[in-house]
Input
Amino acid sequence: MTKTPEVADAIAARTDRYVGWLTEACSIQSLAGQPDELERMARWVEEKLTDLGGDTRRLTYEGAPDAILARLGSGPRTVLIYDHYDVQPVDPIELWDSKPFEPEIRDGVFYARGSADNKGDLVARLAALEVYQQVHGELPVQVKFLVEGEEETGSKSFEAIAEHYADELAADGCIWEGMGIDHAGRPELVHGAKGLAYVELVYRGLAEDQHSSLAVVAPSPVWHLVEALASLRSPDGKVLVDGFYDDVEQPTDADLKLLEQLPFEEEEERKRLGVGHFVGDVTGQDLLRRYYFEPTCNIAGIVAGFTVPGASKTVLPKEAMCKLDFRLVPNQDPDDIVAKLRKHLDARGFNDIQINRFSNEHPVRSPADSLVARAALEAAKETFEHEPAVSPMMIGTGPMYPVAHSLGIPTVSPAGVHRPDSNIHAPNENCRIDDFLKIIDYTVSWLEKLGSIDDD
Amino acid sequence: MTKTPEVADAIAARTDRYVGWLTEACSIQSLAGQPDELERMARWVEEKLTDLGGDTRRLTYEGAPDAILARLGSGPRTVLIYDHYDVQPVDPIELWDSKPFEPEIRDGVFYARGSADNKGDLVARLAALEVYQQVHGELPVQVKFLVEGEEETGSKSFEAIAEHYADELAADGCIWEGMGIDHAGRPELVHGAKGLAYVELVYRGLAEDQHSSLAVVAPSPVWHLVEALASLRSPDGKVLVDGFYDDVEQPTDADLKLLEQLPFEEEEERKRLGVGHFVGDVTGQDLLRRYYFEPTCNIAGIVAGFTVPGASKTVLPKEAMCKLDFRLVPNQDPDDIVAKLRKHLDARGFNDIQINRFSNEHPVRSPADSLVARAALEAAKETFEHEPAVSPMMIGTGPMYPVAHSLGIPTVSPAGVHRPDSNIHAPNENCRIDDFLKIIDYTVSWLEKLGSIDDD
Output
């Protein structure tokens, strides 16, 4: 099967309409902590899905913005589509060239907070449903379109929502919010995501800050924290927390084969990062294997005492704090990892260091040969000029565990509107209009595939 | 010899006059970066010394506030008195109960910036000269009264000034700005000071901050700095910089004997600091020996990445910075210590970490049996209710090296107006009026001793 020619015509004829939808969506300030705007955005999603013929309902959970679930289409197969309607904060606002919630198109690029993450994908998918209906009539599968409003603050309620509404969400496969289009124009496609355990280590070891001359006898909280940190990781990147690798699943032969086919411009990446070598001095396949299958222990922040650049103050600080994020791979469990960290510190005399927990995401992998995975891959091959870049997991984290693992729904994250220069989570977030239209086309294409490809 | 009774009467009769002088001195905002106020303060000192019969001149050095030098009195012996007329910044201003440059007396305590460090001492010494002259007539020794204006910003020009004006400063002994009165009311007395090498370590290892998922392949600048730090010091406080202890002079038998006599309320100090034990778990004489004779490596500050308490952001920071202060003991040399630090880092793969230098003070010791030391000690015994607390060195740092070492003038720092709760360098700096008057008395007393005790 090749592309349906009427689809391109239908998209071309409706470009203004869909860019208009994107403009509407990106004009709503659906930020965490702005309940009125979040509700406005939830209603906008609800109305669009209703207009498309969806049977919508709200999935509610105390303290969380409502998630919207709409059922459309019919057929023996059911696909769950996941997007989110909330956006990242806009600071530092002074670095934006136009206002984050007043979308502007410059040189074919659409600038607004949320344009790339993930309202661009959300609107492209809504538009694709309409295009499909215009070209073909009834959707070829039953679609459950789920849009949550808490993703950018860690989807804290999503696990509970997924558990509580398990029956309503049941599906044969799930299309997760978009990966992107890589710097070479290749559509990305992944079947999972790394997990995350984020902790803050805090140690207050003195009643008050002291003059630094007293460091000769008063134990330094900063040194204590630095010593604790030094026990956690070796310079080659190996995490030294006792038992850290116990549950790590080794990549399969199929995984390693996938890595061989994966495009990775090592030298360009090295230059982009501005580094002389990669962690552990690895290159080639070892680098790729590390990239996708190794967990990490990263210091996201550290602070103590006097930190004004270019000045001096002789102080012995009373306390020190750092933030660690552990990226996890299957089958590491974030709760277990934090428990192991606690035990590791206790065993080395650091039982006085407090651990405060933040994000908590399980790593997750889904099969590469599921119905949704095959549909997304075949559609990508037909839609894009370049071959898809298929990788085993996203190295970042997404809250797909409750769906892909707990509900057992095979999940794939296909290409969405964003590119490496889309400034996700940063000022001047953007997506290219051409990419937005291409993702509408791609979405129609994988809907077609979902209705037509063979079962196994 | 015992106290001259007329001295107490003279001080009592002139209390308002001398508190008035202190009020005048503390009303001038002689802060670094305020050249007009610094000059106003220099003129105030100059006028007071001239009124007392001094032959004053200015010691100038490009970029530094003028130091004032006055010669008074006569006799075969010459004593150099060192004070400074500049003060610390007043921030955080909101924590002051009264304005820092509008002195206020509450319950017998005089509150103003500079009242304890070191205008209280300066004015007490000026007052003592007048009292001496009123009671006895001509001063019994030749006094060279030196008051500099750059002490609070590190006396950067003082070494050059001392070298350039070596002939004018020549003396048989030097009375340095005041130590204090300890929490038990004991007058302190020291014969030297630790040195200081203050550096900032900066490492920028990535072109930009990255999403923390990239920490799996991109070397982390924060880990690199933490690893460098971990190589510098063992948890028991030993500094691991190669060759760090090469030039450390061991305490003599006389030093250790002095420690045996030194009052040190270990348990109270432990509680005040809020710690369970001291560095290296030492107690008793080992603790005192460490206190006075051990050098340190302290982390005065460290910062990298995301540091908002109670929040999370998954970032791989592009750079990290920390501030280290090394307190040095004789005969360590700050230049040599920084060179050794550089070499130590280079030898361990940390040659990419930049070292920026700040304060630089040589440690210095003077003999405990010099003329000035004996005069200050004997006068203290006669003036104060409690026995003096004599210690070998102040654990802090003062710029006395150019005088005590380079010019070879035996130097002692006797009790001044401040107590542990005088809030030196902090909001609500203060000195007690009673202590101020006592230090006038004490100063007259050591002037008398300087004129009368045997040479031996």
